[in-house]
């Protein structure tokens, strides 16, 4: 906390700057919503000034020193930038008292509401450390949070302990713009086929499990799916693009006999682009299911440990009845399903309709027009929640001063 507050104190000594800071602790480069916002900022004439803070915490003395420096930088930019945009929990934002004239936006990195986060998991082994919760009001300093739907907002009000007026699903999610841009889709598809030498006569299965472990720093890849069994059953017809979760720092080691059938795509920065070349998604608890639903393509779920995941973290939906595809607990059953070739998609279509209020390819443009430009002028953006949303009596906002009680 000290480096953040030192940086913030120094930043308060200089005038506010009319630029946008795009910040993430998820990875060392921008992706998802932040990347699409950055691209839209650059498309404007003249381009809208922006800065990037993208880093991941590492262990050891060097890692701690780097983290302290990045924390001080974040504090400085939180004090000086008119607009500060994040895509996940960003610790520096929680330990400052916001400076008048600045505007902070949480875009989150996934659509919908699947796995529980924030205050929804403080009673779970996955949840935030109790000492941290007593010291810092996490997620409290957002002026606006993007969600994909009103139903998502209902859950994220609980996760962030913020009132409905701090959320909007009316803008859409910038990272979904890819699905509606034929030029971008074609370019990404061609690049992926060249990069991974994808055979034109095989179906592409995107396998994208979420990570396991009680924290981001301890994230590990789930290896319960028997890739050898899938190879024996499907190698003549399918190719698997394997995409471990970005938090996983050490991915699976693929044996030589799986080369050509399983392709490690962990180095590709945008999972949404991987979706474009795939015919079917297999996952367990990844929020990628929401955006994949926009393609109206089939999904299947491999989740032999769903009960343990429910206990340790939990879901906002009923896993077995609400996911848009069949659930399997054994590799052989999943293989048989894939061999059948019978993949109805009506559940997928209905799922997309329920979890996206707006998805039309113009979310990045709306975000810049309705949020960034007013905020850069020192005006508070006025963004509707959804067409029919109305606050109820229990939706009270936590006091601003309570956010940084440490």
Overall structural domain count: 2
Task: Identify the strand order in the major beta sheet.
Answer: 2-1-3-4-5-6
Q: What is the overall shape?
A: globular
Low-confidence stretches: 388-402
Q: How much is the average pLDDT?
A: 89
- How far apart lie the N and C ends? 9 Å
The major pleated sheet works out as: 6 strands, parallel
Number of helices: 15
Query: So, the CATH homologous superfamily of the largest domain?
Result: CDP-glycerol glycerophosphotransferase, N-terminal domain
The CATH class label of the largest domain is Alpha Beta
Q: Which class of secondary structure composition applies to the elements?
A: alpha/beta
Within the CATH hierarchy, at the fold level, what is the topology of the largest domain?
A: Rossmann fold
Rg over CA atoms:
21 Å
Number of strands: 12
| Portion of residues within helices | 25-40%
What does this structure look like?
The chain has 15 helices and twelve strands. It has two domains: 2-176 and 361-402, Rossmann fold (3-Layer(aba) Sandwich); 182-354, Rossmann fold (3-Layer(aba) Sandwich), CATH 3.40.50.12580. Strand 7 (203-207), helix 8 (227-234) and strand 8 (238-242) form a beta-alpha-beta unit. It has a six-stranded parallel sheet, with helices on both faces. Strands 9-8-7-10-11-12 form a six-stranded parallel sheet, sandwiched between helices. Helix content is 36%, strand content 13%. It has 406 residues and is of the alpha/beta class.
